């Protein structure tokens, strides 16, 4: 059997988005960018959708880039949205595909309600405006509204749009019920994959709520947590290094790249994981799709 040369310090980038969700590049362009940036193990993790997986895998393998299937599932937990990254599953698994379809289900209605909220503060036709940026109509997201609001001159940049219009209590924010944690975990694990808590520093949980999230995640079979990721500071990475060690979780690493114009962290341009951690990709070794030449 092929023994992998991937280790803790390998340039793994296991979190990014294509046009299939709210990124701006096609899966093939992302594969090329990952390869050019020195990524050694890559996963495309579109929100609630595996429609880009075959294209990403084919493109990666053609470039000699090892690939793990990926997805980022939106979950409602303790009144917040938590993102669970799934890696290394069979992307044709029927229960996973159906569960994700249900999770995407309410997005169009939500988008119309967001648009109505924005109209009340004088921003008209935001739904139509956001749609211009959408690659997959089932995946219309806040990011697409943000792009439209910047284009229309309402805000200078995307983070200003989120601050002023698209977060809780703001005119374009609409509460939504996403997947249950238990369901998301079951879809990923039963399709042969592993689950990872995405960007833990992004949530505003109390310590008690965070403890509940991590312990429920582990009780449902979760093994991984993102430690080094685009939206984490060095202090966040240090904090979640300790969390991973405390709970016996394996570490993941991913840029969360969405777009060359918008993302602060490019594919493959991440700090290393601490030498005290074990990487999730060692657990996923048999799930890695390897280019033909490296398996001989
Ligand atoms: P949605 O799934 O429609 O609620 O949109 C969530 C997406 O919005 C996330 O995946 C990010 O890409 C983006 N997002 C959330 N918060 C921010 C923020 N403060 N600044 C920029 N993008 C954000
Ligand atoms: Mn996103
Ligand atoms: Mn996320
Ligand atoms: Mn993401």
Describe this structure in words.
- With 296 residues, the chain is of the alpha/beta class.
- The protein has two domains: 12-103 and 178-295, Alpha-Beta Barrel (TIM Barrel), CATH 3.20.20.140; 107-166, DNA polymerase, domain 1 (Orthogonal Bundle).
- It has eleven helices and seven strands.
- It has helices at residues 27-36, 53-62, 94-104, 107-119, 126-131, 142-151, 158-166, 181-190, 207-219, 234-247, 280-283; strands at residues 12-13, 41-42, 70-77, 80-87, 194-197, 224-229, 250-254.
- The strands form two sheets. Strands 3-4-5-6-7 form a five-stranded mixed sheet. A two-stranded parallel ribbon has the order 1-2.
- α10 links the parallel β6 and β7.
- α3 packs antiparallel against α8 (181-190) and α6 crosses α7 (158-166).
- It is globular and about 55 Å long.
- 47% of the residues are buried.
- The mean pLDDT is 96.
- The site of one manganese (II) ion (MN) has 4 residues, from loops.
Present the secondary structure layout.
Elements: E1 12-13, H1 27-36, E2 41-42, H2 53-62, E3 70-77, E4 80-87, H3 94-104, H4 107-119, H5 126-131, H6 142-151, H7 158-166, H8 181-190, E5 194-197, H9 207-219, E6 224-229, H10 234-247, E7 250-254, H11 280-283
Parallel strand pairs: 1-2, 5-6, 6-7
Antiparallel strand pairs: 3-4, 4-5
Helix pairs in contact: 1-2, 3-8, 6-7
Bound molecules: adenosine monophosphate (AMP) and manganese (II) ion (MN) (3 copies).
